Amino acid sequence: MRDLSRTQIAVYGAIAVAVLFVGARSIRGEKASSGGFEGHGASVVSGRGITVGGSAGDVVVDVTGAVRRPGVYRLPLGSRVNDAVTRAGGPTGRAELEAVNLAARLADGQQIVVPENLPAESGAAVASEDGPISLGTATVDQLEEIDGIGPVTAGDIVEYRDEHGGLASVDQLDQVPGIGPATMSSLRERLQP
Q: Is residue 44 part of a domain?
């Protein structure tokens, strides 16, 4: 058997180090993209910071409200609001899932707000003429009671809310067709998130 020269030993050593380095990065990359959850490409942002891993085919959403683990999550493109709520640990016992369209597709940067179910006496107070109406649970009839809101606009608001998995603020309603600055002022007085 022939002895190796010092140059050959150095070359083989460098190749071995490069292979180990590439392998270690590959293994570390797989762990980062899994985020500790089942499913492909799923990761959670700890401390509500920036998500690590994933691919260009993912969406990042903020799940808040009546869920067990509110936070920012990365899900595969084409996921539904139900997938995001499940990823956030599922709804709490007080969640009012009827107010959220669980079948809506997720959009990158979307916030999903799962409202809490209010006790019966609190619900009556919210629906009273003097108190604000809950944006997460308002019906078309309740929205029509607000100055400047007719049946078409009220229906558009409920549809917009359902398509976007809820609304975090009254200001989001300025994206609904037919709502101008004067109507927004009435909405801010009569609605609460």
A: no
In a domain, 46, yes or no: no
Q: What are 142-184's pLDDT values in tens digits?
A: 878 877 778 888 888 888 888 877 777 777 777 777 777 777 7
Identify the domain containing residue 68 by its residue range. Answer: 56-114
- Starting at the edge strand that comes first in sequence, how are the strands of the sheet with 43-45 ordered? 43-45, 71-76, 58-65, 111-114
| Verdict on whether the full-model pTM lies above 0.85 | no
pLDDT tens per residue, range 71-126? 999 999 999 999 999 999 999 988 888 888 999 999 999 999 999 887 655 444 44
**One domain, residues 130 and 173:** yes
In a domain, residue 48? The reply is: no
What per-residue confidence (pLDDT) applies to 120? 57
- What b-and-e string marks burial along 68-100, b requiring 16 or more CB atoms within 10 Å of the CB? eebbbbbbbeebbbbbbbbbbeebeeebbeebb
Sign for the pseudo-dihedral over CA of 8, 9, 10, 11: positive
The separation between the first and the last C-alpha atoms of the chain, rounded to the nearest angstrom, is 80
Rounded CA separation 175/136 (Å) = 16
Report the number of distinct structural domains present in the chain. Answer: 2
